[in-house]
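does this look right to u?? zinc ion version
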Amino acid sequence: MVGVDLGGTKILTAAADCRGGVLGRVKVPTGADLGLDHVVNEIVRSVELALQQAGITAENVAAVGVGAPGPLDPRVGLVYLAPNLGWRNVPLGEILGRRLNLPVFVDNDANLAALGECVYGAGRGADNLVYITVSTGVGGGLILGGKIYHGFSGGAGEIGHLTVAEDGPLCGCGNSGCLEAVASGTAIANRAKALIEEGRGLGILSEAGGHKDGVSARAVAAAASRGDGEAIMIMRDAGRYLGVAVAGIINLLNPSAVVLGGGVMQSGRILWEAMLDETRRRALGPALQGVAIVRAALGGEAGVMGALALAAQNNIKKPADDL
Ligand SMILES: [Zn+2]
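got this back:
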């Protein structure tokens, strides 16, 4: 199998056996500003390099999985919109299929991170899994019955835009009180900056070297772990809102695992415990019993591992021991 994680700044490509054992791994810059042809050439080159490293020839590859940013149509591999890449309506699956002369399957990068954690990571063995990534924004994916759940028109899994605070702050999507608007790294930093503008939040400000513009979620987390009361309040509130979302998802889907990843989830115990407390308070007994709420295990590799898993799931032409 070959998996490709196409990001705004880098392309991560892996060649692996059918059990996800990575034999070759290549990282190259995307060079999105150099245009579509350049990016396609770089993907093709990275696939060739990964295969070379793995000692595999292209004829022995059963399928290629590709994770791309932005909304897309996974049935045909059409990327509708990827602002990071400057793309609109790019038939990526078709282009790569032609260039690589292999079956290519494309899905959204957050969906593939969910699949990666489900098949090879923290949710290994789970058939029904919800993945939430909290970093600058909040994203996620749903794995139901072992497969990515796309919904009616491909829009499922937008966990960041669950409303958790009806009259909360404005979200980038135009709605107010989305999970992303109250629990993302950006939201945490914005809340701290607002405090500082009122002349408060001095403990946080000192973590940011005294510069308000340098205040990040990381600075808030650092101040919180030092015991700063205002920082603790901000991290706790973000965690609580995450718990509201996680409990709602548990009540709706009864998954066997909820996997949380992204930089903000690594920001210490305060946010994590607030999330767990709120989840336990709101989730209903039968669905809460037995659900594993765990940290993501694959970090930045989740997308490429999910791309490998997608390729493996679509490997219907060749025997299972193929690559
Ligand atoms: Zn939103």
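The first helix runs from residue 36 to 54. idk if thats expected tbh
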